[in-house]
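Hi V.,

You were right to ask for the full record rather than a summary. Here it is.
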Amino acid sequence: MYDENGEKYLDCINNVAHVGHSHPDVIKAAVKQMELLNTNSRFLHDNLVQYAKRLTATLPEKLSICYFVNSGSEANDLALRLARQYRGHQDVITLDHAYHGHVSSLIDISPYKFNQLGKEGKKEFVHVAPSPDIYRGEYREDHPDAASAYADDVKKIIEEAEKNGRKIAAFIAESMQSCGGQIIPPAGYFQKVAEYVHKAGGVFIADEVQVGFGRVGKHFWGFQLQGKDFVPDIVTMGKPIGNGHPMSCVVTTREIAEAFGASGLEYFNTFGGNPVSCAIGLAVLNAIEKEDLQGNAIRVGNYLTELLNKQKEKHPLIGDVRGIGLFVGVDLVKDQLRRTPATAEAQHIIYKLKEQRILLSADGPHRNILKFKPPMCFTMEDAKLVVDQIDELLTALEEATGSRTGNGRSTTAQHKRKMTNEGNSQSDCISESINHINGTACRQKNGLYTDNRAVPCKRIRT
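Predicted structure:
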C-alpha cells in the first residue's frame, strides 16, 4: 500500500483487506452493481440468493440460514439475540481477554473492554472462562490434556451458575483469539465445551469475524481446526467478508432461526444483504478461489512460522511462536523461564517497524504479542523482509538491555553502536525509548528518533 506521498508500506496486519487492498475484481463488481441497482434488502435480488448459496456451501450442512448485516459487532449482537430467544435463557459465558464488538451488548461480554471499568464492569449475567492458552495459562503445553482441563473450567462455571438459579444462553468464543494474544485453542476444547453448554440448554457461538474466510489455510473457517466432529450452532463473520466494504453475516441452524421467528418480533435490516454488498461478497469468494489464497496462506504461513522459529532460537526475547496459516503471534518475554511479558520491547519494535514502513501491531493482555494477520496475498518475500527487520531490531534491543546470552542463541549479525553528537550510543537511546513506553518521560534527542518526537504509549488495536 502507498501513502499520499507515494511511499510504499508493507501491511502485515490488515485482515480487512482480505484479498488485497483495492483488489480490481472487487472494485469492478461493486461499481458494476452500483451502476445497475442498489436498494434495501426488503426486495429480493439474485445476488442475495447466489451469495447465500455460495457462503453456506463452505459450512457444515446444518448451518444453512443466513442473516446479512453490516459489521462484525452487528453480527455478534444478533447472534446473542438468537441464542437468548432459542431457550429463553439470558446468561453468557465468554473467554477472558475476549473482544466481540463495540456496541453495548458486546462490551458487556468482552473482558478486553469491560475490565478497564474495574469491578463494576462485569455484569451479573456474564461468566468469564479462562482463555485456553497453553503458553501462559494454567494448563500449559506439558499438560497431558489441556483441552479437557480448560473445558472442565467451563463446566464448573455452568454448575455454579445453575446453583445460583441462572441459565446459560450461550458460550461465545473467537475460533482463535486475536486481541487475546493470538491464542489457538487445543484440539478437542470446543467439542467438550459444546457438550457442557448444550446440556445446560445453551448454544455455541463461533466468532469468525477476525479469522474466517480461509486465513488458516487448510480450512475455510477457524472452528474447523477442532475437527470434523465439531459444528457450532451459530457462526458470525465480518471484516474480511467484504474486503473493506461494510458487510457481515450470521449463519445458524433452521431450528434456532425458527425459534427466533416464532417470537413474533420481525427481524429486518435495511442494508444487510443489499445487491452491492452481495456482489462484493461474491467477488471476494471468487478471488479466494481463483487465486488459491488458501493455498497461499498455507505456503507463506508455514514459511513465516519457520523464519520466526529460527529467530526464536537466536533471540532470548522470543518466548513463543504460535499460529496457523496467516494468523501468527510472537510472544516477547523478558525471561524465558518466568515468561515475563516484554511489553515495552514489543511496542518499541512496532514503532520502529513503522518508521521502516512496515505495519505490524502488538496486542494481548500484556500488549507483548507481535501479531501477523496480513492480507491473504502476502508473499514469501514479504515474510522474509519483515522477519529480517525484526531480527535486526531484536539484536539491537538485546544488546541495549543486556539480555543477550552466551548460550548460542544470540544472532551472528553484529550490532554496531552509533555514537550521536552528544556522545550517546544507539543502545542508550533504545533503553531510553523503552523506559518511555513503560511510562517514563523521555524526549528523544538522538539518532533513534527525530527531535521532540515522543513515543506514544496509548494502546493501539487493529
